[in-house]
Fold:
Amino acid sequence: MKRVLLLFFAFFLSGCDSGTEWRDGKYEVIWIDTPGLSLNLNVGDGASVERVPPNVVAVGGNSHYIVVKQSNIKSKEIAYFYLEKEKDNIYKNANEIMKGPLSEAKFIELSRRLGLPKFTKEFHY
Structure:
């Protein structure tokens, strides 16, 4: 009986599944128990703070910025985001750090003006 309980608890505790699909320093695109990817700030000890919620479909970074392309699964609308790395910290909320959602036209304009990086990784569902 003890073995059955131990196996049950081991299975129950290992039920949370996750993975990292992309990393740039302390930023990572991850999934947790779902196929939708989010951009998170890794704060250590296996913890992270969400910066862009699912469904991230492309990402890129350089020494100053992270750029994200997100798709709405239902409407198929595309939104763009960027953040300035040096202004980010674990005590800020995503809405204090992320710029967006932006239209493609606005994102292209800001990319030229700010020197935002290109998308270097695309994700397909």
The first strand starts at residue 18 and ends at 24. Strands lie at 18-24, 27-32, 38-44, 47-52, 56-61, 65-71, 78-84, 99-102, 121-122. Residues 2-122 form one domain. The chain has a mean pLDDT of 87.
